[in-house]
Amino acid sequence: MSTHSTGPAPYPRAEVSPPSGELFPHKHLLGIWGLDPTAIKHLLDTADGYAEQNRQAKKSTDKCEGLTQINLFFENSTRTLMSFEIAGKRLGMEVTSMSTGTSSIKKGETLLDTAATLNAMRPDVLVMRHADSGAVKLLSEKMDCAVINAGDGRSEHPTQALLDALTIRRRKGRIHGQTIVISGDVAHSRVARSNIYLLNAMGARVRLVAPSTLLPKDVDRLGVEICHRMEEGLEGADVVMMLRLQQERMQGAFLPSLREYYQFWGLTHEKLKYAKEDVLVMHPGPMNRGVEISSDVADDLDRSAIEEQVEMGVAVRMACLDILTRGLREEDGQ
Fold first, then answer.
1. In the structure, how many helices (H) and strands (E) does the chain have?
2. N or C: which end of the chain has fewer CB within 10 A?
3. What backbone phi and psi angles, to 5 degrees, belong to 155?
4. Are the beta carbons of 204 and 177 closer than 8 angstroms?
5. Rounded to whole angstroms, how far apart are CA atoms 326 and 319?
6. What is the C-alpha to C-alpha distance for residues 268 and 282, in angstroms, rounded to an integer?
7. Cβ contacts of 203 within 8 Å, gap of 6 or more
């Protein structure tokens, strides 16, 4: 096992917007890198309340009534898009999801022209997913409203990291001091990057397990432990996060056959024996069963938190929408 403790260079803070409050003084949510533990805890605490509300018969509120949310997804999505739609509607927002396949973008309109068009419609929140790293930040600089990054290239997926953290905190009681393994295609995973930033910020011990070809080039700067064998990497783990093999982002020979990948790096009950007895198993989805995780592990009700992650996704996105629009509601006296 090799250990790297040098953290990344300071990340520039998100644009400050005083009305959004002292606990989260940011206009946008573009990533986890740049958020301090206080801001992260505020998001998680707020989401925790929504998680409880979502388990009641009456799940909706009119807290954000009259506000407009636009979801702009340039990549296919099921979980993230649907949970943002549900989150906005449960807060009382008017929610519109824009299909890029039938929009003017398909006709050659640039991203900045699209930003100008959407900005003229005066939305209050724009949720965006894009295949290019940095595209969401670029668009946020042209929008007057709050912008939430729903995943950009290999860069970040902040709400996924937040829902993962909320799941861990609710199941384990804390994040600080937990040994958390992130295993699989780390190189192509924005989920892994956001989780590394968040878990390090909150005091967890983070360990990456992957073949060397599936680790990012800047792994030495991420402040994590690195293992190449599952048995070694799972030793004493409290939480195991498995990642999807993103073959659509791979160009070249990154791994052997899928059968060999599963043999060496797929999560099975046999390999889980090296982790703690009460280990929590997670996966951001969609899963490739029999490739990165076995079906019996994924469906193990005692260990798997995969369905709970989906549930917490709605709560986290409600919290993000709520917190980023509080300034607007205060101005209107709501």
1. 12, 10
2. N
3. -75, -80
4. yes
5. 11
6. 13
7. 175, 176, 177
One-letter amino acid of 317 = R
Write the CA distances from 25 to 22, 43, 283, integer angstroms: 5, 12, 30
Query: Is there a contact between 19 and 39 (Cβ–Cβ < 8 Å)?
Result: no
Contact 93, 67 (CB under 8 A): yes
3 state SS for 225-277: EEECCHHHHCCCCCEEEECCCCHHHCCCCCCCCHHHHHHHHCECHHHHCCCCC
> ∠ at Cα 308 (302, 311), nearest 5°?
160
The CA-atom distances, in angstroms, between 88 and each of 26, 61, 114, 236, 319 are 19, 10, 22, 39, 10
Give the sheet arrangement for strand 94-99, strand by strand.
94-99, 68-73, 125-130, 146-152
Q: Rounded to two decimals, what is the model's pTM?
A: 0.90
- Two tokens, residue 142: 């042209």
Token pair in block for residue 311: 């549930």
Tell me which residue has tokens 């006709």: 107
Tokens 């709400």, located at residue: 159
Token look-up 């909150």 returns: 202
Each residue's pLDDT, cut to its tens digit, for the chain (334 residues) gives 554 443 443 333 333 333 446 799 999 999 999 999 999 999 999 999 999 999 999 999 999 999 999 999 999 888 999 999 999 999 999 999 987 765 556 555 788 898 999 999 999 999 999 999 999 999 999 999 999 999 999 999 999 999 999 999 999 999 999 999 999 999 999 999 999 999 999 999 999 999 999 999 999 999 999 999 999 999 999 999 999 987 654 444 456 688 888 999 999 999 999 999 999 999 999 999 999 999 999 999 999 999 999 999 999 999 999 999 998 887 766 6
Q: What is the CA radius of gyration of the chain?
A: 20
